[in-house]
Design brief:
Helix content: 40-55%
Shape: elongated
Low-confidence stretches: none
Order of helices and strands: EHHEEEEEEH
Number of strands: 7
Largest sheet: 4 strands, antiparallel
Strand content: 25-35%
Structural class: alpha+beta
Length: 147
């Protein structure tokens, strides 16, 4: 493996908090709809749901992009280097992401690296990571990196 790009710890934490809150709300609503629950039990269900959601979110929030001699690997699949036409950073909503353009005309948005606006969303090394991705793509396109 030549390179791996995952969200920063702060970005994974942000994703974990968001997912944790959603799971806590769903878990608490589910308990409240099924039976009347005392306040202490309600708080325990909310706390456990929040912890479970945050743990799952932290684990899921760390998935990213792997680069090797054969191409770009993401959670969605693999794109060989000879299918990649262009690679660039683009603004999508509140995030700047890396988009990979393919020979087929389709584009693929990488899960990482990215940089966003707001609390815990920024990646201070985003530009360096994009530069590294671009260098790897160009090197493989002209055969400059040994397998």
């Amino acid at each position: 493996m030549e390179a791996a790009f995952t969200p920063t710890r702060q970005q994974a934490l942000r994703y974990g908090i968001l997912l944790g809150v959603l799971v806590a709300l769903a878990g608490t609503a589910g308990v409240l709809l099924t039976a009347p629950v005392p306040g202490v039990l309600w708080a325990a269900v909310a706390g456990c749901s929040l912890a479970a959601g945050m743990t799952g979110g932290l684990l899921a929030g760390r998935r990213g992009t792997r680069i090797d001699a054969r191409g770009i690997r993401t959670a969605r699949g693999h794109e060989p280097w000879d299918h990649v036409v262009d690679l660039r950073a683009e603004r999508r909503g509140a995030r700047t992401v890396v988009s990979v353009y393919l020979v087929s005309g389709a584009s693929l948005q990488l899960a990482a690296p990215y940089s966003g606006d707001g609390l815990l969303a920024e990646d201070p090394q985003f530009d360096l990571k994009v530069s590294t991705l671009s260098h790897l793509w160009r090197s493989h396109s002209i055969g400059g990196v040994p397998c």
